Amino acid sequence: MTCWRSPDSYGYGNLLDASAVDRSSNKAIACGRRVSQWLCMLLHAFLLCVVFTGGAVADEPRDLALALLREAEKIPEANVGTTLRMAKAFAEAGDSTTAGPLFVKAWNASLKINDDDFPLRVALLEIAQCQAEIGQENDAIEAAQKLPSSFDRAIVLNAISAVLAGQGKVTAAFHTVDLIPAQERFQENVPGTHRDMALNQLSMAFSERLDYANAMKAVDLIGSGGTFNEEEKRAAEQQRVSGQFWIFYSQLESGDIKSSLQTAHSFASPSRRDSALCRMLRCGGDRVDLATAREIFKDIQDPSQKDIAATCLSERLCRLKQLDEATSLLDQIQDTAEKATGLLELAVGHAANGDMEKTRAFLNQSTALAPLAGNPNKVAVAMKRIVEAFVNSGHFDHGQEFAGEQNDLETRSVCHQAIAIAQCKQGRKVIAQQAILESRKAAVSISYAYRRSVRLQELAVALLGVDAKEEAIATLKLAHETGCNVRSAGGTDVWNLIEVAKLQATIGDSESVAATFEDAFTAARKYPDDTYSGSLVAKVIQAQAQFGNSTHAIQIAHEEKSSEARAGLLVAAAGGLLAHSSPPPPEENNCGNK
């Protein structure tokens, strides 16, 4: 059986196939070590001190990662997914010379796989993008042009051109798009061509680089180079509008409000123009001054966009304590959900003024229009904002009263957390300690183990933010204990423990980190499906190599008796070490997760 599931990292996303980690090896690892402890430690010490390319002393995790990758490279049984991840890791470590042939090997091996479950197109796309990222775009283009399917050729060339545009290789990017036949449809009987989609992608890539001239050049080329019927022309126009929107959005995100406003008004379609103007109010934040925001609001004509814009503007007015104008603005909103959101903003605004009566009144109006009961997370966020508004404006008693009224345990925990953080910032340690205990008490009473653990982790992160290290450590220990009780068929239990371990590592609680990772390994090995169990073990190995004891992670990788699986686990450990290490020198090519 073939391994895949889109390698988004070195082990995150199904590293192994069914033959990779069998149940007997899992039992052996769980019950007793097959390879003697001293031998594993000796091997790891050797890897730490010697890099296989010349015997240089390994003075950082990147050197050890390269050593592990070279060891994995020598295992001929490595499957396609592992080979690709190996190549990506070499490139990430700055060794493009080794990565290049491995990408070619993965490409050729992918083409030979005859398995309906193997996503060939995804694999080829991934490989070609990585080749382009390390400067081997010519090899990628040549291989793509040899593909028997015109659809696959177009898809891969599209991906390559986008990478080149992102690197600023303007001529090469447009040349690659020119290799796509002008009238090659994206889907049979569906208007729209691969070439137009590729040009749209170029517009996005150039816009991200703030290269608006070439972004607009790509937009202008959409719909050219062929003879099209009316339906195809309409599809091309949609792609042009989409490409133009990338330019607008990039200008907005970069803070060029004047240019983004001009681009928004340049849309021929009134609905698209209103959508862009509304987005300026939603995403522009304080970069759009209040006077300009008011003018933008007046220019919006579409009723639905007008309602969204009114909510955004009223939220800003509430933050500025211009509550009368915000209230007047809400009277114009027709959409029930948007009005409910606006009323909630008014409740928060009045809480910041310490007005409990108006806070309750507007909150009740909001929940009457759009009840929050069906969405616990939304309830918690809303109530937390109100409590924060009270305590941050000096109305501590109101905040404490409001928090105490919450019946939902998660909401109560979040509200008391808000009080604790505010009091920590003000140096009121006794009151903060009491609020921490209340928050933790509510959290540990949550019935669903996974939510209980997540809530405790969130509390710990908040405590770290105010340097309450000891309280964070104690909270994470509770999260760890809870995490061991999570029951999941989809790996949630393992992921949860990994996240707890990462937080413990951030604090520097090394003893707890080791115990949490050990429980994560135990949870991963309990899965009856060998394929999935193996992939989870790989995830734990990668995380431990990055955040915990890399010696232990590498030891487990070496103990795997299946050569195919061992290659995958070594790559996973290398990935963790690379994530832990400093990036390669700027002059070296880099192909990794973005």
Entry keywords:
2 strands; disordered N terminus; two-stranded antiparallel ribbon; disordered C terminus; 71% helix; flat; 594 residues; mainly alpha
Please explain how this structure is put together.
The protein has 594 residues and is mainly α. It has a domain at 270-355. 71% of the residues lie in helices and 1% in strands. The protein contains 30 helices and two strands. It has a two-stranded antiparallel sheet with strand order 1-2. Helix 16 (303-319) packs parallel to helix 18 (336-352), helix 18 (336-352) runs antiparallel to helix 19 (356-369) and helix 24 (449-465) runs parallel beside helix 26 (492-507). It is flat. The two termini are 29 Å apart.
Structure at a glance:
This protein is an all-alpha fold.
Give the topology.
Elements: H1 23-31, H2 37-49, H3 61-73, H4 80-92, H5 96-112, H6 120-133, H7 137-145, H8 150-166, H9 170-178, E1 185-187, E2 190-193, H10 194-208, H11 212-221, H12 230-253, H13 257-265, H14 270-283, H15 290-299, H16 303-319, H17 323-330, H18 336-352, H19 356-369, H20 376-392, H21 396-404, H22 409-425, H23 429-444, H24 449-465, H25 469-483, H26 492-507, H27 510-525, H28 530-547, H29 550-559, H30 563-580
Antiparallel strand pairs: 1-2
Helix pairs in contact: 3-4, 3-30, 4-5, 4-30, 5-6, 6-7, 6-8, 7-8, 8-9, 8-10, 9-10, 10-11, 10-12, 11-12, 12-13, 12-14, 13-14, 14-15, 14-16, 16-17, 16-18, 17-18, 18-19, 18-20, 20-21, 20-22, 21-22, 22-23, 22-24, 23-24, 24-25, 24-26, 25-26, 26-27, 26-28, 27-28, 28-29, 28-30, 29-30
